[in-house]
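User: My collaborator sent over this chain with a note saying "see what the structure looks like." That's all I know about it. Can you take a look?
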Amino acid sequence: MPAVTWYEAGKPDPNKQAPPWARIFGIARDGTVYAPAALTSDEPATLKKAAADGVSAAMNKEHAFLPVPWLVRNYPYEFEVIRVCRIIEGFAQQVRSRR
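Assistant: Without extra context I'll predict from the sequence alone. Here is the result:
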């Protein structure tokens, strides 16, 4: 499992309810940004697909997180996955600029 530092993002859309796990993202030591695997709506299947690709999930509070580049590449037609991954990348960029 990768070493990841966890952050909580603000609500990307104040008009939508989001569960607490959906506002969490991680940044690994190598700079890889991690987003919730549950964004795909089928977390178990997504984790199996990632494992088959040799991609390790990071865990936080019993939720699995996968690298944003992998999620975007493997779910290119899932609008919500892409949208949230881009928002998370923006938050991660803000965190990096404060370091």
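A starting point for your reply to your collaborator: The mean pLDDT is 90.
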